[in-house]
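Deliverable D5.2: sample structural annotation.
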Amino acid sequence: MTFDLPDLPYEYDALEPHVSAKTLRVHHGKHHQGYVDGVNEALGTTGKKRLTLEQVILEAAGRSSEQSLFDKAAQSWNHAFFWNCMTPDGGGEPEGELARHIDMDFDGYDKFRAAFKSAATGLFGSGWTWLVIDNGQLRVKTTANAMLPMVQGQHALLTCDVWEHAYYLDYQNERGKFVDAFLDHLVNWDFVASQFEQQLENLDRARRRRQDARADFAHLAFANEGAR
């Protein structure tokens, strides 16, 4: 199949003053478009034309001969996901089950926010910062360049692009200010919650398994202590 550049879910100027229309026009219309064009061009020399973008990514991952295809396909997916992670008048704290699980896994939103910002500002070079479900738990992680959680068996809920082209026109070298704006004014928690809800049953099941395992271990330790 031939892939098309997805439309932004808002107008180019909708995220101002936090992300300028100029940045979005370049980021979406040139960078993202370039990745999509690169995927289509690369697929012309392979037998993968009938695959979905996710299938292309997973097929190409880890193969040195298909590194260029992987990079372009992964960056196409990453950007499409990133656009949906932002919304005008977004930011602040999540609500509902997502908020409850953030409280459990990070000991509160403030600690999640601190962990996310630290990861985003601490990543050397280009890449992405994510909130993911990993082995039944919410975690913050970073990936370099085009790498993305699906290749590592994780489910992405939220991402922030920390390649310089995402923020340099607006914030120059102050990545931290961009991350603050992203978290405080742009995050689309409704979208994040929708991704989370798709995995909620699996997440709760994994959490119960961990709790049962801890209870079994505590019971065994108690029994062994009593036998001495």
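Annotation notes: The chain has one domain: 21-205. The mean pLDDT is 91.
The annotation will be released with the project's public dataset once the embargo ends.
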